[in-house]
């Protein structure tokens, strides 16, 4: 049984109410930015205190606090409509990149400076602005419970920059109501692109051993770096593995190219559709005139939709398994994942963005990782819709306030449409 769509005036009122709260949205973001939460070391207690206070101000919110390790805090807030329906999750992460005080900031990394329509601070794009957008959207929707059914859940994780094992993954494994029928994340991106999937990852370390000798007597030794070079050549051959992506994913990537690449860099569409191997570190040897007895490298392998982790690990065994003196191990991995581009949460987000922006955004995969990958791994259809990042990880990180307001409006309208779409759900 389907509910009636929310009345146009309800959508209009909610969008206008979010926009009218522009100053409050800015202030909320500034409060979150001022609460230092760099990872490493990963202590997000200050940011969690601020976020918990903001969540408690939402009408009817029930807020839970979970500390999964010293300083790593995860928050879950539930807002019930009072009627059965679906559960929509807003997810965000509280931790940020290190402050980088030595990078040459012209404003305070924790100051939340507002200047010329730009809001500055460490983590303002990744992703304290996105969190504030979701909180304002939830706050307004809580005041309009008669317009939707089911439940809104806000999950704020304390451990995203470190792969999320103590953050969103922990919540999904241990807190049943942290899951839902769909999830919206305000992580970095662009209001012009609705991200519906992400590449997978496989990090490996390769060790090579040899026989030490004097550099003038190479006939008496075995060079570990030479063995490592052979292994790395084999590793790079993984980039030629075939990819069998669903046609809908390929079509979406190509259709998004003209909009997405100017934002994310030329070549993004190609990168999204193939395996990439980045050899990130190499070490070995102690002197030019000695044959090295040990060498090591670490690499980042990214998997597009259409290639499995099993296929990549089988290829690693083929390429590296027969090289004398070489061993390797996987140190981190997760599969590629996506929500079908025509899933209702994608459609509702696109429709809401079209309404707010006055133009339709494209839908595309995401090159980098976010906690949306974890939600998809647990069967929760998910999208990422956030502000454009400027200076992320560097000095003078900032977002555009106009974009921040629009992101909050889209979060509110997409959630409203999703929670008005059907009575069936988890709640």
Automatic annotation (TrEMBL):
Positions of the Peptidase M20 dimerisation domain: 197-322
Entry keywords, A to Z: Hydrolase, Metal-binding
One term of GO molecular function: metal ion binding
Secretion signal span: none
InterPro entries xref list: Bact_exopeptidase_dim_dom (IPR036264), Peptidase_M20 (IPR002933), Peptidase_M20_dimer (IPR011650), Peptidase_M20A (IPR050072)
PANTHER family the record matches: ACETYLORNITHINE DEACETYLASE (PTHR43808), ARGE_DAPE-RELATED DEACYLASE (PTHR43808:SF32)
The name this protein goes by in its record: Acetylornithine deacetylase/Succinyl-diaminopimelate desuccinylase
């Amino acid at each position: 049984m389907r509910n009636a769509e929310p009345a146009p005036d309800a959508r209009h009122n909610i969008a206008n109410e979010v926009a009218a709260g522009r100053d409050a949205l800015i202030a909320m973001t500034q409060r979150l930015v001022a609460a230092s939460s760099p990872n490493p070391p990963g202590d997000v207690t200050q940011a969690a205190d601020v976020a918990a206070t903001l969540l408690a101000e939402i009408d009817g919110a029930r807020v839970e606090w979970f500390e999964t390790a010293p300083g790593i805090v995860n928050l879950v807030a539930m807002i019930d409509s009072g009627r059965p329906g679906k559960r929509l999750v807003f997810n965000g992460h509280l931790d940020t990149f290190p402050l980088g005080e030595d990078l040459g900031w012209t404003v305070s990394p924790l100051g939340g400076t507002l200047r010329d329509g730009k809001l500055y601070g460490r983590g303002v794009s990744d992703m304290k602005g996105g969190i504030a957008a979701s909180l304002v959207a939830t706050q307004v929707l809580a005041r309009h419970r008669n317009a939707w059914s089911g439940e809104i859940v806000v999950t704020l994780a304390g451990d995203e920059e470190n792969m999320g094992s103590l953050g969103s993954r922990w919540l999904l494994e241990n807190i049943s109501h942290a899951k839902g029928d769909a999830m919206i994340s305000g992580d970095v991106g662009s209001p012009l692109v609705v991200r519906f999937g992400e590449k997978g990852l496989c990090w490996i370390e390769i060790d090579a051993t040899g026989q030490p000798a004097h550099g003038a007597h190479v006939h008496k030794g075995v060079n570990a770096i030479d063995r490592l070079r052979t292994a790395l050549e084999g590793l790079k051959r993984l980039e030629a593995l075939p990819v069998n992506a669903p046609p809908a994913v390929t079509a979406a990537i190509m259709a998004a190219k003209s909009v997405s690449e100017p934002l994310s860099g030329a070549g993004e569409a190609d990168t999204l559709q193939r395996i990439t191997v980045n050899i990130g570190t190499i070490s070995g040897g102690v002197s030019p005139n000695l044959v090295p007895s040990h060498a090591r490298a670490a690499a980042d392998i990214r998997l597009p939709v259409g290639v499995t982790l099993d296929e990549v690990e089988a290829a690693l065994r083929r390429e590296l398994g027969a090289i004398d003196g070489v061993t390797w191990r996987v140190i981190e991995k997760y599969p590629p994942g996506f929500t079908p581009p025509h899933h209702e949460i994608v459609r509702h987000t696109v429709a809401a963005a079209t309404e707010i922006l006055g133009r339709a955004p494209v839908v595309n995969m995401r090159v980098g990782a976010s906690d949306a990958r974890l939600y998809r791994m647990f069967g929760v259809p998910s999208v990422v819709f956030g502000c454009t990042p400027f200076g992320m990880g560097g000095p003078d990180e900032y977002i555009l306030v106009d974009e921040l307001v629009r992101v909050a409006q889209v979060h509110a309208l997409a959630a409203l449409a999703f929670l008005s779409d059907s009575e069936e759900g988890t709640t």
